[in-house]
Amino acid sequence: MRLFAIIAIAVAAASCADEVPTTTPFALVVPQGFSPPPLPEDNPLTVEGVLLGRRLFYDPILSRDSTQSCGSCHNTGFSMTDNGQRFSVGITNAVGDRNSMPLHNLAYHSAFFWDGRSPTLRELTMVPIQDPREMDNTIQAVLTSLNASPTYRDLFWKAFGVKTISAEELGLAAEQFMLTIMSGNSKFDRHLRGTESLNAQELEGLRLFNGEANPNAPMRGADCFHCHGGALFTNNKFTNNGLDSVTTDPGLGAVTGDQNDLGKFKTPSLRNIAYTAPYMHDGRFQTLMQVINFYNSGAHANSPNIDPSMGDITRPGGLGLNLQDRMALLAFLNALSDPSIENDTLFQNPFN
Ligand code: HEC
Ligand code: HEC
Predict the structure, then answer these.
(1) What are the tens digits of pLDDT across the range 81-130?
(2) What is the Cα gyration radius of the chain?
(3) Contact predicate 86/158, CB 8 Å
(4) Euclidean distance between CA atoms 282 and 296, whole angstroms
(5) Among 208, 238, 287, 291, which is best to mutate for testing ligand 2, by the most ligand atoms less than 8 A from CB?
(6) How far is C-alpha 252 from the geometric centre of its chain's CA atoms?
(7) pLDDT digits (tens, 9 = 90+) for 264-301
């Protein structure tokens, strides 16, 4: 009788240890005025998953020589871009050829990288790990290191109920963390909510931003909203804004194989744009004023596959914005800065 009781307790203890742990749902804070993001149904956000994803994001264990993490090239102080650098440098000192991208409000995006080559954040995570110019590792080696770590085995068990960590859970955890990085509390947002007011110059910049550049329009506008409009300040499409008359980087065209996509790039969000210099896929412009000057008079109408909405911007004479107009546009772009990513402890490196 007593032996039976002991066996019963032992069996209960064993099955208890095997029981898939319960997770805590993560309460995503969506900025006021944003629609709820379309989150992936097969990867529900949990506190365990998000915190594990954050740890992985900041852990150099993902790179071959354990010197570089995702956070090395995506710094909270720069709206998750690479510390003001034009091109990123990988662990072998190899230099990339595209400018690092900000990571905010990605839950609303459906294609990632400047050329859109990754359809999901979980798939994207495997790319920098294996890129010889970035972390120069193999997925197999990463999984070996993670499975050798009692801490990671425990964290993956608690987040996903797996005893052996595979690429799938690695991707899901990183995806969960990146989905939580939201930004929507700039001076402009507070202006919309009525808790703060844009000044006269910023208001004029807003008007120019949303104004038609049509020379017959009653007031001068800058046509920016066609591609950078809406709450996210991007149309979430791939467009060519006329940077070059001869395209050197094929952009989306290399991914789709379609001639009509050559020279098209992901239209970037302009939120937090003051934090993410230099600008464009190749970081060619150092300052926002250089970008504004480009749109004012430097865009190439003959660029292959240039977007039709660039028509009025590239007409002879360009936008015709005087210095005061350009300063107003700059003031408005600066009013899109939200320091929450830098200040929110949730996004910070947990190893610090
Ligand atoms: C060596 C620097 C470097 C490292 C390390 C790095 N990235 Fe990046 N990241 C970049 C660059 C550069 C781009 C743009 C590349 C392109 O478009 O081809 C980018 C783009 C991205 C994007 C696309 C954002 C968008 O709006 O489409 C995401 C997401 C991202 N990185 C996440 C990560 C994650 C997760 C890791 C770690 C597994 C990581 N990065 C490691 C430099 C880096
Ligand atoms: C036809 C669509 C289109 C229009 C109109 C447009 N843009 Fe852009 N914008 C883009 C694309 C696409 C890029 C990225 C291009 C690249 O890197 O190849 C970009 C890049 C930028 C960048 C740099 C972003 C970064 O993260 O590097 C800024 C700033 C910007 N645009 C501001 C403006 C302003 C201000 C206006 C109005 C004067 C404007 N844009 C009009 C499509 C457009």
Answers:
(1) 999 999 999 999 999 999 999 999 999 999 999 999 999 999 999 999 99
(2) 24
(3) no
(4) 20
(5) 291
(6) 17
(7) 999 999 999 999 999 999 999 999 999 999 999 999 99
